[in-house]
Design brief:
The complex is a heterodimer. By secondary structure, chain A is an all-beta fold. Chain A is built from no helices and eleven strands. In chain A, the strands form two sheets. In chain A, strands 2, 4, 5, 6, 9, 10 and 11 form a seven-stranded mixed β-sheet that branches. A four-stranded antiparallel β-sheet of chain A has the order 1-3-8-7, with no helix packed on it. In chain A, 36% of the residues are buried. The termini of chain B are far apart. Classes of the chains: A mainly beta, B mainly beta.
């Protein structure tokens, strides 16, 4: 199985900050990577697919990059609505696997 | 508007069974691969199972293989997960999720149904 490792696990930041979350795959997954935002009690929300494609309706302050084994999710200017947990997911091969999550907290 | 509504969760004893359901609306259900993903309390997301549009291709996580069965009824726009021989570690919110264009990214999710396994 492909292991996905996110860093950091927790990130404290202020509104307006630029934040970057990293996701590493245990083997190459080409660009078959998605990013999700998840808030307690709600359904996860797809932000980025194919490593860098912005899902329809997602604000442009979110961007994704990388390929093969190293990927990033960047929020260019953190907004109050962005405090949540973020997950990467590989879909290069079954079983699909998620990173352990990065919680973005208010500093 | 795309909607996915799960049901069937509840409190069950170890070794017990449940059948989870997910009713879809707002899109052509029969053309999409569908998935179940779960989240245990205080833990991250875990993919559980996938089923292709025509049920020809089915995949499971190792943690549930042999105990869980995914199925669908395209005439009823419904996805199912039969969960058997439940263990405490199966306690989780179970989400159904649509596969975005057959790629594996999950673009619509339901609100989830809670399964609690406890004596």
């Amino acid at each position: 199985d492909i292991q996905m490792t996110q860093s950091p696990s927790t990130l404290s930041a202020s509104v307006g900050d630029r934040v970057t979350i990293t996701c590493r795959a245990s083997q190459s997954i080409d660009s078959w990577l998605a990013w999700y935002q998840h808030k307690p009690g709600t359904a996860p929300n797809l932000l980025i697919y194919r490593a860098s494609s912005l899902q329809s309706g997602v604000p442009s302050r979110f961007s994704g990059g990388g390929s093969a084994t190293e990927f990033t999710l960047t929020i260019s200017s953190l907004q109050p609505d962005d405090f949540a947990t973020y997950y990467c997911q590989q879909y290069n091969s079954y079983p699909w696997t998620f990173g352990q999550g990065t919680k973005v907290e208010i500093k | 508007e795309v909607q996915l509504v799960e049901s069937g969760g509840g409190l069950v004893k170890p070794g017990g069974s449940l059948r989870l359901s997910c009713v879809a609306s707002g899109f052509t259900f029969r053309t999409f691969t569908m998935n179940w993903v779960r989240q245990a309390p205080g833990k991250g997301l875990e993919w559980v199972s996938s089923i292709s549009s025509g049920s020809s291709y089915i995949y499971y996580a190792d943690s549930v293989k042999g105990r869980f069965t995914i199925s669908r009824d395209n005439a009823k726009n419904s996805l199912y997960l039969q969960v058997n021989i439940l263990r405490a570690e199966d306690t989780a919110v179970y989400y159904c999720a649509r596969d975005f264009g057959g790629s594996g990214a999950l673009d619509y999710w339901g609100q989830g149904t809670l399964v609690t396994v406890s004596p």
